Amino acid sequence: MARRSRCASDGTLVMGHTTAIRSSAGVVLALLATVQPLFGDDPENTDWPLLGNAHEMQHHAGLSQINTDTVGRLGLAWWVDLPTVKGLVGNPLIQDGRIFQSGAGSVIYANDLRTGEVLWTFDPRPGAGDGSFLAAYGLFVNRGVALHDDLVIVGTGDCRLVAVDQATGAQRWEARACEQGNNQTITGAPRVGGGLVFTGNSCGDSGASRGHVDAFDAATGRHAWRFYTVPGDPSKPPESDLYRMAAATWGDGWYERSRGCGSVWDAMVYDPGSERLYIGVGGPSPLNPTARGA
Question: What pTM does this model have?
Answer without folding.
Answer: 0.83
